[in-house]
Amino acid sequence: MVRQPQINAQNRAPLSIERIIEAALQIVDGQGLSRLTMRRLGDALEVEAMAIYHHLPRGKEQLLDGLVMHVAAAPADAAADADLRDWARGYRARLLAHAGVLPLLVTRRNPAALATTVASLREVLRRGAVPEDVAAVTAHTLLGYVIGHAALEVRGTEEDGADRTVDWDARFAAGLDLVLRAA
């Protein structure tokens, strides 16, 4: 008889919403959104799937909202210390790193997910003496551009019909110049 190794619960970090979201993100990043199940997540966390519901009572819906919040929220100090170009490049990189969550970001109705990001962008714009009404429009436009570009990039769209490989970095930079010049 072969003995299975015992999992030492004392060496494992306590279950928390943050730990659950991180484990779910690893599954989505590595295997895709369709492979994220509560059972698979429980296995990754080395807990029974039902233990997750203690932290996420609404189950998978709350988990998906948590993934969107985690990926969509730019770090609190990111926009404060960066100019808008740096912010846009960093946010695009974050979205591309977690491309499996991007469809959720685009389709789920979760206004809180983007509220912090929009607020931090508006603050950067206001500090640059941009009037509040213009700052609001600019923040939404910039955020829409970055999310939309990342979505096209993940999809691999070559909307110009060219038979050449698209330089996504150059295309992003050129579009960003257009958006920021208009701001």
From TrEMBL:
Xref: InterPro entries: Homeodomain-like_sf (IPR009057), HTH-type_TetR-like_transc_reg (IPR050109), HTH_TetR (IPR001647), Tet_transcr_reg_TetR-rel_C_sf (IPR036271)
Pfam families xref list: TetR_N
Molecular function per GO: DNA-binding transcription factor activity; transcription cis-regulatory region binding
Domain of life: Bacteria
Keyword Transcription part of the UniProt annotation: yes
Annotated keywords: DNA-binding, Transcription, Transcription regulation
HTH tetR-type domain: residues covered: 20-65
Gene3D superfamilies named among the record's database cross-references: Homeodomain-like, Tetracycline Repressor, domain 2
Protein name per the record: TetR family transcriptional regulator
Organism: Actinomadura rubrisoli
Taxonomic lineage: Bacteria, Bacillati, Actinomycetota, Actinomycetes, Streptosporangiales
